Amino acid sequence: MKRDYYEVLGLGKDASADDIKKAYRKLARQYHPDVNKEADAEQKFKEVKDAYDVLSDDQKRAQYDRFGHQDPNQGFGGGFDASGMGGFGDIFDMFFGGGGRRANPNAPRRGADLEYAINIDFLDAVFGKERDIEIQREVECDTCHGSGAKPGTKVETCSRCNGSGQEEVQANTPFGRVVNRRVCSVCHGKGKQIKEKCTTCRGTGRNKVKRTIHINIPAGVDDGQQMRITGEGEAGVNGGPAGDVYVMFRVRKHDFFERDGNDIYCEMPINFAQAALGDEIEVPTVDGRVKLKIPAGTQTNTFFRLRGKGVPHLRGNGRGDQHVKVKVVTPTKLTDRQKELLRELGGLEDGAPLHEQPEENFFDKIKRKLRGE
Ligand SMILES: [Zn+2]
Ligand SMILES: [Zn+2]
């Protein structure tokens, strides 16, 4: 059963707005969960707050007087909202003189960081590259040098707060008269008043500008890695330092090379004769073509390692390796002469059919092995 709101506040139906406010303050102080450690304090505090929320609002009070708790149009006593008037913050401001917790609005503040993602080519990620990127950021207005005032006009000290950015408000509390401090309602804490606004920045003191910054893409950078460019972010406020720019690299795929960390993988087709008899083939690497010896009797899917032909280590020296997987390609178009030779060869086989290795996940297995897993 919900108690009558007037009863909760200990008032009659003819209570004035002032009576309601006074009763609420007294009871809120008494049952505030931070002050009152009794088990039902929070429940009582909520009850008091609900009653106050309704009775302090002329319209809600009139509805309540007519319909009581039964009014179908009102969600009486619903939430426990500390954000509006009468919430915890206000109560504590009211009783204990709030305002001290607010940061000084004139203190220097660092500008915001900016994030950019750029696409780079596979080979640029391997070897690094210089590049210009365009960023948009907020900087101090050139016209007014950040003051927000039209050049030639003066920025005046706020007459309400005398430049402190805070104003004092007196309030009556159960402890007597208390002086609260809060952010100045005229200058919103800046301590200054602008009579005529700068037309370039409309009084904000800041403008959005495009700027080109030169970056060095480091050799060895990998997809998803970030680089920080100090001091190129948004301008600071009140003389604070500028933020940073974070550039994230998105590395494009390559038609021939595949990258895994600092190692590069590729696949080279060879024919049956090369696999059986051995050969020397040319393999593309990121440094250009190199020769690779294929030993006689090489099976399909065999890996060969080209040391130092991988990606440079981002920090420190050295490079990864290139791993070349050879694929033995079975010919599909044969001349009569070739067919004859193969038939002859088949007859020489010592019974067992040429057995192919299963290919599923083989590439992945090898990669794991090479990583020592
Ligand atoms: Zn300006
Ligand atoms: Zn002011």
Automatic annotation (TrEMBL):
**Cofactor(s) named in the record:** Zn(2+)
Q: Which GO terms describe its cellular component?
A: cytoplasm
Q: Locate the J domain: which residues? A: 4-68
Question: Which key words are in the record?
Answer: Chaperone, Cytoplasm, DNA replication, Metal-binding, Repeat, Stress response, Zinc, Zinc-finger
- Residues annotated for Zn(2+) 2 binding in this entry: C158, C161, C184, C187
Q: Where are the CXXCXGXG motif repeats?
A: 141-148, 158-165, 184-191, 198-205
Q: Which GO terms describe its biological process?
A: DNA replication; protein refolding; response to heat
UniProt domain comment: The J domain is necessary and sufficient to stimulate DnaK ATPase activity. Zinc center 1 plays an important role in the autonomous, DnaK-independent chaperone activity of DnaJ. Zinc center 2 is essential for interaction with DnaK and for DnaJ activity.
Q: How does it assemble?
A: Homodimer.
Q: What does this protein do?
A: Participates actively in the response to hyperosmotic and heat shock by preventing the aggregation of stress-denatured proteins and by disaggregating proteins, also in an autonomous, DnaK-independent fashion. Unfolded proteins bind initially to DnaJ; upon interaction with the DnaJ-bound protein, DnaK hydrolyzes its bound ATP, resulting in the formation of a stable complex. GrpE releases ADP from DnaK; ATP binding to DnaK triggers the release of the substrate protein, thus completing the reaction cycle.
Record's protein name: Chaperone protein DnaJ
Identify the taxonomic lineage of the organism of origin.
Bacteria, Bacillati, Bacillota, Bacilli, Bacillales
